[in-house]
Design brief:
The protein is of the alpha/beta class and about 280 residues long. The protein contains 8 helices and 7 strands. A 7-stranded parallel beta sheet has the order 3-2-1-4-5-6-7, sandwiched between helices. The longest helix is centred in the middle third of the chain and has 27 residues. The radius of gyration is 18 Å and the shape is globular. The protein starts with 7 loop residues before the first strand and ends in a 12-residue tail after the last helix.
C-alpha cells in the first residue's frame, strides 16, 4: 500500500512506545486513527498531541487480553470509519522471571496481552477486511524474542514465538486466497520504551506478581538497562513498519545485528547442536 491518506488505521498499545510512534507516523500520512490502550489517561494525552481533527480520530480504552474488548474495538472502528486499512496489533507486556518462578496468572497475563490479543483481533477484523474492495494490511508486533530464546523471559518468548508463527500462517493463508489483505511482522530487539515496567498496567484480575528471587531481580535489572540503552527508537520502528507496508514486505527486523543470533540459532537446529547461549545484550 502506498496511498494511505484518508485510510483508517487501528493501533493497539497506542498510548506510548512503538504504538504511539505508529500513531504519529500514521497521522503524518493523513490517516484516520482508531487508537486503543488500557491506560486511558495516557492515551487521551497522546491523542490530544496528534495533529488530527476530532472527526478523524477516536480513542478507546481496551484491555486487549479480553476478546469482548477486541470485538468492541472492531465494531467501533467499522461503525465510525466504515473500513480498516491498517491494523497494528501492537500492545505488549513483559515480565522478567526465571521460568519456574512464574505463576499461572503471570502466564495468563503475558499470553493474554501478547498472543491472545492477536488471535482475537484476527477473528474480529480479518473477515470484514476481506470484504473490502481496497487493499489493507495487518502488522503484528512480535519481537526478536519471537526468533530467539532469551533467559528469564519464558512467557514473553513463548508469546512472541506464537505471534511469529501465527503471522506466518496468516500470510500463507491470505496468499493462497489471493486476498487483498497483506501481513507484516515487526520483530524489534531492544528499543527504549517502558516495556520493562509493564506491571503498571497489569489488570487486577491477574493479581500481582510474587517478589522475584535474587536471580530474577538481577535479570530484570539487566533487561531494564538493555531496554534503556537501545540505539534504535520507537520512531525508527514506526518508520520501518511503514516502509514495509509500502514495499509489501513481511519480515520487519530493524536491528540488523540480531540476524547474526537468529542465523546461529538456525544453524544449531540444522546441525543438531545444543543451543548456543545468547549474549546478555544483542
Amino acid at each position: 500500500m502506498h496511498d494511505l491518506e484518508n485510510r483508517t488505521a487501528v493501533i493497539t498499545g497506542a498510548a506510548s512506545g512503538i504504538g504511539l510512534a505508529l500513531a504519529q507516523r500514521a497521522a503524518r500520512e493523513g490517516m484516520r486513527l482508531m487508537l486503543a490502550d488500557i491506560d486511558e489517561a495516557r492515551l487521551a494525552a497522546a491523542a490530544q498531541a496528534l495533529p488530527l481533527a476530532a472527526e478523524a480520530m477516536y480513542t478507546m480504552r481496551v484491555d486487549v487480553s479480553r476478546e469482548a474488548d477486541i470485538a468492541a474495538l472492531a465494531d467501533a472502528a467499522f461503525a465510525r470509519f466504515g473500513a480498516v486499512h491498517l491494523l497494528c496489533n501492537n500492545a505488549g507486556v513483559g515480565l522478567t522471571r526465571l521460568a519456574w518462578e512464574m505463576s499461572a496468572a503471570d502466564w495468563e497475563w503475558v499470553l493474554g496481552v501478547n498472543l491472545w490479543s492477536v488471535v482475537h483481533a484476527l477473528r474480529h477484523f480479518v473477515p470484514r477486511m476481506l470484504q473490502q474492495a481496497e487493499e489493507s494490511r495487518i502488522v503484528n508486533t512480535a519481537s526478536a524474542a519471537g526468533l530467539l530464546s532469551t533467559p528469564a523471559m519464558a512467557a514473553y518468548n513463548v508469546s512472541k514465538h506464537g505471534v511469529v508463527t501465527l503471522s506466518e500462517t496468516l500470510y500463507a493463508e491470505l496468499k493462497a486466497q489471493q486476498a487483498k489483505v497483506g501481513v507484516s511482522l515487526l520483530c524489534p530487539a531492544w528499543v527504549p520504551t517502558a516495556i520493562h515496567t509493564s506491571e503498571r498496567n497489569r489488570p487486577e484480575r491477574f493479581g500481582t506478581a510474587a517478589p522475584p528471587s535474587a536471580a530474577s531481580a538481577a535479570c530484570h535489572a539487566r533487561m531494564g538497562q538493555a531496554v534503556k540503552s537501545g540505539r534504535l527508537t520507537a520512531d525508527d520502528m514506526a518508520n520501518a513498519v511503514f516502509d514495509a507496508v509500502a514495499a509489501d514486505r513481511f519480515y520487519v527486523i530493524p536491528h540488523a545485528r540480531i540476524k547474526q543470533a537468529v542465523r546461529l540459532r538456525m544453524e544449531d537446529i540444522l546441525e543438531d547442536r545444543n543451543p548456543t547461549p545468547l549474549p546478555e545484550k544483542q
